[in-house]
Amino acid sequence: MNRKIKTILSVVLSTLTITSLLAGCGKGGSSTTSASASKNEITLWTPLTGPDGDTMTSMIAEYNKTNPKYKVKHVPIEANDMYTKIPSVVSSGKNVPDLTIVHAERIPLFVKNDMLVSYDDAISKDGNNIKEENYLKEGWRVGAVDNKRYGVPLDVHSYITYYNPDLLAKYGPHVLDDGVITMDEVKEVGEAAKKDKIAAIGVDWMRVMTLAWIKQLGGDITSDGTKPTVNTPQAEKALTTMKSFVTDKIATQDGDDPQQLFMNGKLVFWPEGIWMRNGLKDAKAPWKMTNFITFDKNKLVNWSSSHNFVMFKNPARDADKTQGIIDFLKWLQANSLKWATDAGQNPASMAVQTSAEFAKEPQAFLAKEPEALHVFNYQYYGYVAESLDKIVLDTVFGKMDIKKGLEQAQKETEDRIASGK
């Protein structure tokens, strides 16, 4: 996706979805999506409407062939529509899905708005088969709020670095000797490559790039889980460094399309999500994947999110159907390899993480350093994300002063928390 379009969409989606969540309910209008299901059917809403949605549908079809008491019906809904619809149906108690996949960073706000049901009783009654040691720690961590389990992870999907091995061999042959790409090494490669009009690093989804660097540098986006910390020395250093790369022609320039440059062999490092893997099938240039670029070779942070299964409050969901949900989630523990091979994702199931099949996938390097995965599950993450989206590209491309941009983002986040909008 074009970088500018991606940024615009991310702002629009963030605005609409956060507003709907905080409203807690909406005007009841008509809906073409019904969550009603037969007595022995679990209705699953997901924001998976692309090829990953097809993969999920295929996995569910395999589960249904096992003849469970409760078969699963997959209802993929465009993310913005789904997140907008959820508060209304939960408030009305009608057409509430039995099970839903949401991005884990939304869970704290859903809990604050009293919209979710905890899994704790159902897991306990089942014999605690759904437990921490069966999942990636980061995916499991972000499904809990105040020591209650509200989410069960499907995956932990991360923003990493794609690189061109041929270009790297030419301009930085020793960079990956230690398996880590540092910002100093990006500069070194860029200085060597720019004579051939090849950029070292792509300016892509700058919000998540900035967040990863903030965490790498020892910062965070909240000081206590409530107060935001957007305007920090760590954020300033991240943006200042990238601005210098743009100025020195080490990074891509305003108007460039990093994906196309990378696919055509004109970019050495392309920071992007593991979910973009399948988009490189037609690339003319060779590529590999590794951890996100870091300031400190001893501190790796791959910005991540996690698709978590949650249960919104639903008066029609009884204990028997809840057990059916638990049965489905247990099946996925052992049967989510396709989520890696077909969707290009990083399944949270440790059974998959430790399998020989997963080890063959290009994103399998993530399994070697799971502590590098980090999900920002701050309850006001959406506010921070939107405020950063408004300033990061302009600051990096020299259209806005970095200090003033961060001050603006800090104030906007504080104001939105205070107003609840």
TrEMBL record:
<dbReference type="Pfam" id="PF13416">
    <property type="entry name" value="SBP_bac_8"/>
</dbReference>
<dbReference type="InterPro" id="IPR050490">
    <property type="entry name" value="Bact_solute-bd_prot1"/>
</dbReference>
<feature type="signal peptide">
    <location>
        <begin position="1"/>
        <end position="23"/>
    </location>
</feature>
<dbReference type="InterPro" id="IPR006059">
    <property type="entry name" value="SBP"/>
</dbReference>
<protein>
    <recommendedName>
        <fullName>Sugar ABC transporter substrate-binding protein</fullName>
    </recommendedName>
</protein>
<keyword id="KW-0732">Signal</keyword>
